[in-house]
Amino acid sequence: PAGVAAGLLPEEDCMKLNPSFVGIALSSLLAIDLWASKRLGVCAGEGSAWGSARPLMKVIEVSGHGIPWLLGTFYGLCQSDSSAAREVLLNLLFALLLDLVMVAVVKGLVKRPRPTHNKMDMFVTISVDKYSFPSGHATRAALICRFVLRHLVLAVPLRVLVVLWALIVSISRVMLGRHNMTDVLFGLLLGYMLYGVVEHCWLSPATAPTLFALW
């Protein structure tokens, strides 16, 4: 009888035959994520629906890349003659480095492959960039957005532009086929949370006198 047969099966096999509601829900969400991400990858290749917009999307991609931000922040730090500006730039540099480390660690742990429709022609990649989860661009965009809005005095139109930039960079990751939607959503959440870490560990002449003495 079926009941007897089920009783003879190892416990783990019984679990496979009776998957939990949570497992089914997660599998369904993953399937929806993959399907929707592929549908939204309209700039994944030159022959895609919006393939002509791919060069523009790649410019947006570079605007959210870590290297330009690191180099620009370091240059500004070296050129600044204001102690207040140096403090802000030094903490932005710390935020960018923290972002790179955390994203690399999570990518290395999760090891989710990039979407199959992605074209591996990204600007300056490292080994962990073959993985998809989370989106480093989205994480960085959220982190920089919160940092800039908090520490720079900007007119309202510029503040709106900063938020729009972060959203466009994040959306472009799916449009280019670089990431699935959940990669981007988690990246935004991670970046938002990392800003809290930066604020908690804020570097100042009082908390890090040796570091500030170098500048």
UniProtKB/TrEMBL annotation:
Pfam family, one: PAP2
UniProt GO cellular component terms: endoplasmic reticulum membrane; nuclear inner membrane
Compartments (UniProt record): Endoplasmic reticulum membrane; Nucleus inner membrane
Alphabetical keyword list: Endoplasmic reticulum, Hydrolase, Lipid metabolism, Membrane, Nucleus, Transmembrane, Transmembrane helix
Catalysed reactions, as listed in the record: 1,2-dihexadecanoyl-sn-glycero-3-phosphate + H2O = 1,2-dihexadecanoyl-sn-glycerol + phosphate; (2E,6E)-farnesyl diphosphate + H2O = (2E,6E)-farnesyl phosphate + phosphate + H(+); presqualene phosphate + H2O = presqualene alcohol + phosphate; (2E)-geranyl diphosphate + H2O = (2E)-geranyl phosphate + phosphate + H(+)
Transmembrane portions of the chain: 89-110, 152-172, 184-203
InterPro entries: PAP2/HPO, PAP2/HPO_sf
Major localization class: endoplasmic reticulum
SUPFAM superfamilies noted in UniProt: Acid phosphatase/Vanadium-dependent haloperoxidase (SSF48317)
Domain named Phosphatidic acid phosphatase type 2/haloperoxidase: residues: 88-199
Enzyme Commission numbers on file: 3.6.1.68
Membrane topology: Multi-pass membrane protein
MF-aspect GO terms: sphingosine-1-phosphate phosphatase activity
GO biological process terms, semicolon-separated: lipid metabolic process
Family in the record: Belongs to the PA-phosphatase related phosphoesterase family.
Protein name: Polyisoprenoid diphosphate/phosphate phosphohydrolase PLPP6
Source species: Irena cyanogastra
Organism lineage: Eukaryota, Metazoa, Chordata, Craniata, Vertebrata
Gene name of the record: Plpp6
